[in-house]
Amino acid sequence: MAIKDYIRERFFPHMWCPGCGHGIVLNGLIRAVEELGINKNDIVMVSGIGCSSRISGYLDFHTLHTIHGRALPFATGIKMSRPELNLLVPMGDGDALAIGGNHFIHAARRNIDMTAIVMNNRIYGMTGGQYSPLSGYGTLATTAPYTNIDHSFDVVKLAAAAGATFVARSTAYHVQQLTDVIKQAITHKGFSVVEILSQCPTYFGRKNKEGSAVDMMERMKDITTPIGSKAKKENPDLIERGVFVNEDKPEYCSEYNKIIERAMKGN
Amino acid sequence: MAKPKLKEHLINRNWCKGCGICVHFCPKKVLELDSEEKAFAARPQDCIACKLCELRCPDLAIEIITE
Question: Which residue among B17, B24, B63 sits closest to A214, beta carbon to beta carbon?
Fold first, then answer.
């Protein structure tokens, strides 16, 4: 199928700013689904609130646009009642890790089969550029005019420690890797987390003098490196890209079905 | 497998927001922005149909048609 078969064309051009990395995530996600050959009626996309969460409106899957930070609980409900469906849960950094931080760690801990995509642009874009839990120490935001003193989460370490059985990271610049890790995450049975570094030229870029969308993408090339590279040993500040965790562990819905069977037998 | 050969660049001018990502990252410098800040193929003869512009376009505005 062509790319246009997966989108709701009537809502285009989309509302994201020129050069927004979220559009590239949308682009890569469609290609991942197309390459996997999954029927779009077998996919449910659940999103919360924020620039990133608008992605669900543009895709012609079953979609739910829910409440801030609570996309994962809604997705959990759907998955438990219809475990045969593929659940995709795109979230922004604030949506996933501030407002929805608790839901995020517990969905990971349960290892429920769904794909959480954290579209990390390090800012609350929709509401005007407030700092998020991923903005990082020393950055500027409308709510941190004298620099942010909060340290950021490492999404990969957090997800792995919480029990996610597939954890990967890529960027909006590395589009082929982006598509590849989303494909692996969707195929993986269990809770998958994919962090995509995305650029917000309008707020994060402007506040932190990182230039245009193009400059921000050039920067992604410079500040990241494949996992275990020689460059990482020489410069520990580089952010690693690739698949960090890929392991098998009993999945929540399968285990729950076993409980139902046991309860029905009465022992 | 033979290398794909370009037939045309389909660029949706209504969707293009002129961010310039395709122009900057094209390895053969095929694309440019016109006076209305919309992408167009200035040197289509140099295109190697790698589709990196299509993959990186945040607005889904580019489609590379190959023969």
Answer: B24
CA end-to-end span of chain B: 13
Residues 32-61, chain B, touching A (beta carbon < 8 A) = 52, 55-61
Residue B67 has what pLDDT? 86
| Band (B6; pLDDT cuts 50, 70, 90) | confident
SS3 call for B53: helix
**pLDDT given for residue A237 in this prediction:** 95
pLDDT confidence of residue B1: 61
Q: Judge whether A155 and A193 are in contact, CB under 8 Å.
A: yes
Residue in A closest to B17 by C-alpha: A18
Could you say which of 3.30.70.20, 2.40.50.320, 3.30.40.10, 2.40.50.200 is the CATH number of the domain covering B6-66? 3.30.70.20
Does the ipTM surpass 0.90? yes
CA distance A261 to B7: 58
Residues A77-107: b if buried by 16+ CB within 10 A, e if exposed: ebbeeebebbbbbbbbbbbbbbbbbebbbeb
Q: Cα–Cα distance between B16 and A211 in angstroms, integer?
A: 20
Domain ranges in chain B are: 6-66
Contact list in A for residue B57 (CB cut-off 8 A) is 23-24, 27
What confidence category does residue A52 fall into, taking pLDDT thresholds of 50, 70 and 90?
A: very high
Check which CATH number belongs to the domain holding A86 and give it. Answer: 3.40.50.970
- pLDDT at A29 exceeding the cut of 90: yes
Cα(A56)–Cα(A110) distance, integer angstroms: 24
Instruction: Please answer whether residues B49 and B4 qualify as being in contact, where contact means their C-beta atoms are separated by less than 8 angstroms.
Output: yes
Tell me whether residues B55 and A27 touch, CB distance under 8 A.
yes
A166/A169 Cα distance (integer angstroms)? 10
